[in-house]
Protein backbone atom coordinates (compact mmCIF):
# COMPACT_ATOMS: atom_id res chain seq x y z
CA UNK A 1 0.00 0.00 0.00
CA UNK A 2 1.32 3.47 -0.90
CA UNK A 3 1.53 5.83 2.12
CA UNK A 4 -1.06 8.61 2.04
CA UNK A 5 -0.44 10.33 5.38
CA UNK A 6 2.91 12.09 5.77
CA UNK A 7 4.10 12.51 9.35
CA UNK A 8 6.13 15.72 9.91
CA UNK A 9 9.87 15.27 10.41
CA UNK A 10 9.69 16.91 13.83
CA UNK A 11 7.33 14.18 15.06
CA UNK A 12 9.84 11.51 14.03
CA UNK A 13 12.67 13.32 15.79
CA UNK A 14 10.68 14.04 18.95
CA UNK A 15 9.49 10.43 19.21
CA UNK A 16 13.00 9.06 18.61
CA UNK A 17 14.42 11.39 21.24
CA UNK A 18 11.82 10.15 23.71
CA UNK A 19 12.62 6.53 22.78
CA UNK A 20 16.39 6.97 23.27
CA UNK A 21 15.95 8.83 26.56
CA UNK A 22 13.64 6.02 27.71
CA UNK A 23 16.30 3.43 26.89
CA UNK A 24 18.87 5.53 28.76
CA UNK A 25 16.63 5.69 31.83
CA UNK A 26 16.10 1.94 31.65
CA UNK A 27 19.73 0.92 31.03
CA UNK A 28 21.58 3.66 32.92
CA UNK A 29 19.06 4.54 35.60
CA UNK A 30 19.63 8.19 34.76
CA UNK A 31 17.54 11.03 33.34
CA UNK A 32 19.93 11.85 30.50
CA UNK A 33 18.04 14.92 29.29
CA UNK A 34 18.89 16.81 32.50
CA UNK A 35 22.30 15.27 33.30
CA UNK A 36 25.73 16.59 32.35
CA UNK A 37 27.36 14.85 29.39
CA UNK A 38 30.44 13.84 31.40
CA UNK A 39 28.28 12.20 34.05
CA UNK A 40 26.29 10.32 31.41
CA UNK A 41 29.41 9.04 29.64
CA UNK A 42 30.92 7.95 32.99
CA UNK A 43 27.68 6.16 33.84
CA UNK A 44 27.76 4.37 30.47
CA UNK A 45 31.28 3.09 31.20
CA UNK A 46 30.28 2.05 34.71
CA UNK A 47 27.09 0.23 33.72
CA UNK A 48 28.56 -1.48 30.65
CA UNK A 49 30.12 -4.18 32.83
CA UNK A 50 26.65 -5.25 34.00
CA UNK A 51 24.59 -4.36 30.94
CA UNK A 52 26.33 -4.43 27.57
CA UNK A 53 23.40 -2.66 25.90
CA UNK A 54 24.43 0.53 27.68
CA UNK A 55 27.22 0.90 25.09
CA UNK A 56 24.55 1.56 22.45
CA UNK A 57 23.87 4.89 24.17
CA UNK A 58 27.20 6.18 22.86
CA UNK A 59 25.84 5.69 19.33
CA UNK A 60 22.28 6.86 19.94
CA UNK A 61 22.65 9.90 22.20
CA UNK A 62 24.59 12.08 19.70
CA UNK A 63 21.78 11.54 17.18
CA UNK A 64 19.12 12.92 19.55
CA UNK A 65 21.04 15.40 21.70
CA UNK A 66 23.61 17.77 20.22
CA UNK A 67 25.40 18.03 23.60
CA UNK A 68 26.85 14.57 22.99
CA UNK A 69 28.17 15.17 19.47
CA UNK A 70 31.46 16.62 20.72
CA UNK A 71 31.64 14.24 23.69
CA UNK A 72 32.08 11.08 21.63
CA UNK A 73 34.76 10.31 19.03
CA UNK A 74 33.72 11.40 15.51
CA UNK A 75 34.07 7.79 14.33
CA UNK A 76 31.25 6.79 16.67
CA UNK A 77 28.80 9.21 15.12
CA UNK A 78 29.92 8.27 11.63
CA UNK A 79 29.45 4.59 12.49
CA UNK A 80 25.87 5.25 13.59
CA UNK A 81 25.21 7.11 10.36
CA UNK A 82 26.66 4.12 8.50
CA UNK A 83 24.17 1.85 10.28
CA UNK A 84 21.30 4.09 9.19
CA UNK A 85 22.69 4.33 5.67
CA UNK A 86 23.04 0.56 5.37
CA UNK A 87 19.45 0.10 6.55
CA UNK A 88 18.32 2.50 3.88
CA UNK A 89 20.44 0.92 1.14
CA UNK A 90 19.50 -2.62 2.09
CA UNK A 91 15.85 -1.87 2.70
CA UNK A 92 14.56 -4.95 0.89
CA UNK A 93 14.44 -7.10 4.06
CA UNK A 94 12.47 -4.37 5.79
CA UNK A 95 10.33 -3.19 2.86
CA UNK A 96 9.09 -0.30 4.94
CA UNK A 97 8.39 3.25 3.74
CA UNK A 98 8.50 4.63 7.26
CA UNK A 99 11.94 3.14 8.01
CA UNK A 100 13.25 4.58 4.76
CA UNK A 101 11.86 8.02 5.59
CA UNK A 102 13.21 7.93 9.14
CA UNK A 103 16.71 7.05 7.93
CA UNK A 104 16.43 9.77 5.28
CA UNK A 105 15.52 12.35 7.95
CA UNK A 106 18.46 11.43 10.18
CA UNK A 107 20.89 11.37 7.25
CA UNK A 108 19.88 14.71 5.69
CA UNK A 109 23.02 16.63 6.65
CA UNK A 110 25.39 13.71 6.15
CA UNK A 111 27.92 13.07 3.40
CA UNK A 112 26.55 9.81 2.08
CA UNK A 113 29.42 9.30 -0.36
CA UNK A 114 31.82 9.05 2.58
CA UNK A 115 29.58 6.56 4.35
CA UNK A 116 29.65 4.09 1.49
CA UNK A 117 33.28 3.17 2.17
CA UNK A 118 32.99 3.10 5.98
CA UNK A 119 32.83 -0.26 7.75
CA UNK A 120 29.84 -1.04 9.93
CA UNK A 121 30.43 -1.05 13.69
CA UNK A 122 30.76 -4.38 15.46
CA UNK A 123 27.29 -4.18 17.02
CA UNK A 124 25.51 -2.91 13.94
CA UNK A 125 22.84 -5.63 14.00
CA UNK A 126 21.78 -4.68 17.52
CA UNK A 127 21.69 -1.01 16.56
CA UNK A 128 19.56 -1.89 13.53
CA UNK A 129 17.18 -3.84 15.78
CA UNK A 130 16.81 -0.82 18.06
CA UNK A 131 16.06 1.43 15.07
CA UNK A 132 13.62 -1.14 13.65
CA UNK A 133 11.87 -1.49 17.03
CA UNK A 134 11.49 2.28 17.28
CA UNK A 135 10.07 2.60 13.76
CA UNK A 136 7.56 -0.19 14.28
CA UNK A 137 6.34 1.31 17.57
CA UNK A 138 6.18 4.77 16.03
CA UNK A 139 4.26 3.39 13.04
CA UNK A 140 1.62 1.78 15.30
CA UNK A 141 1.21 4.99 17.27
CA UNK A 142 1.10 7.21 14.17
CA UNK A 143 -1.38 4.92 12.41
CA UNK A 144 -3.75 4.85 15.38
CA UNK A 145 -3.51 8.64 15.74
CA UNK A 146 -3.94 9.56 12.08
CA UNK A 147 -5.86 7.02 10.10
CA UNK A 148 -6.43 3.32 10.39
CA UNK A 149 -7.38 3.04 6.73
CA UNK A 150 -4.27 4.62 5.20
CA UNK A 151 -0.58 3.80 5.32
CA UNK A 152 1.50 6.45 7.10
CA UNK A 153 5.02 7.55 6.30
Task: Tell me the quaternary state.
Answer: single chain
Secondary-structure class: mainly alpha
Roughly what percent helix?
Answer: 55-70%
Mean pLDDT comes to: 89
Q: What order do the SSEs take from the amino end to the carboxyl end, as H and E?
A: HHHHHHH
From the alpha carbons, calculate the radius of gyration and give it in angstroms: 16 Å
Biggest sheet details: none
How many individual β-strands?
0
Low-confidence stretches: none
Query: What's the number of structural domains?
Result: 1
Give a structural overview:
The protein is an all-alpha fold. The chain has helices spanning 9-28, 37-48, 56-64, 74-89, 97-106, 112-116, 124-146. The protein has one domain (9-142). Helix 4 (74-89) runs antiparallel to helix 5 (97-106). It is globular. The mean pLDDT is 89.
Summarize this, please?
The chain is an all-alpha fold and 153 residues long. The protein has helices at residues 9-28, 37-48, 56-64, 74-89, 97-106, 112-116, 124-146. The chain contains 7 helices and no strands.
